[in-house]
Predict the 3D structure of the following.
Amino acid sequence: MEYEFGPYALSLGSSPMFKPSPDGCSVALEVENFDEAVAQLKQHNVKFRIEPMATPICSMTMVYDPDGNCICIHKRKAK
């Protein structure tokens, strides 16, 4: 499920690649500038679950928050 608000989106749910599990659910937060967000995450030594990558729909990465929860950071491609 993806919720749009203004130019951004919040995605909650599962896909064949990211099914809910004991490790947590699939939550994706869209950022304005993906490359800048990734640079800031790396600058702050955030642990990456999945390194930044491009998909047909978006650029994405998965990181762990300070409590160990997995969060997807992404930027959708223009339609």
Q: What stands out?
A: The mean pLDDT is 83.
